[in-house]
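Reading a protein record of the kind used here takes only a little practice. The record below shows the convention in full:
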Amino acid sequence: MDKAIYNDDFWQKVFKRKFRTGIAYHACIMDYLSSKQRVLFTIRRLMEIPISQARIVIQYWESSKVVTDLLDKYGLDSYQVKREYKKNHVKPGYINIDISSQILNEQFLLELFTRHYGLDFSRPNALNLVPYFIIDTGNAEIIAIKCYDDRGFYQYFIRKEDKRINKILE
């Protein structure tokens, strides 16, 4: 199942909420938190998850250079621009980031979420992007998080031993 975090077809189904068999999820609604509290809560939740292998996927409606400069600033050099955003198009750009360490870069997350959640609060350096985190815990599950807008995120729990999911991933 170590390749499961890279199965884009599977994750598209999960994140679009069309595929739920064998998957538990919950929505974290942060409507009553300040912008700063939302950022810190999301980071805290991500930092609590043990990492064996991880991947961050960022969909963006910005210049690729703006997003890659942010990644380079924090030394995240293990990324691939899978699709560049074309100005005035509906289809977003798409960057895949491999995480090789056992912990996420907290300073990167602070800036990423401040700029992501800042969009709906009309902050000056906000970015129009949607981050997805896919984390193999090294135990019996994969945990995935989709930060959909300033209101919160969905968290998915996928059991590695589930035969139905293994058939899909084969």
Observations:
- The first strand starts at residue 23 and ends at 29.
- Helices lie at 8-15, 35-47, 64-73, 106-118, 163-169.
- The mean pLDDT is 87.
- Residues 35-47 form the longest helix (13 residues).
